[in-house]
Amino acid sequence: MTHALLTSQQPEEALALGAGWAAAGADVTVVLLDASTAVLRPNHDAADDLAAARDAGVRIWAHADAVTERAVEPRAAGVELVDLDAVATLLGDPDTRAQWW
Questions:
Q1: Which of 59, 63, 68, 71 is nearest to 30 (CA)?
Q2: How confident is the model at residue 74, as a pLDDT?
Q3: Which of 18, 38, 66, 92 would you call most buried, defined as having the most Cβ atoms within 10 angstroms of its Cβ?
């Protein structure tokens, strides 16, 4: 089962929760939407949370349109830019449990 954590405003909480679950062996995807894509900036307060989640094995997805809209360059390695169709497919999978932050 995949745990999908979607966040548009609170990336720190979603990344920390996802890192904990992934460290315990869960399959976790954090989806950064809207303003939460700002965490991809290297000087963002939660940049370390992003790195820790990635290091714990969390898949990090960022909504491509939100990244473009905010002129963020996803410099963080391991971040996949996705469209909303990919997010809908993830959420529509019966083996996915989703939470919105």
A1: 59
A2: 65
A3: 18
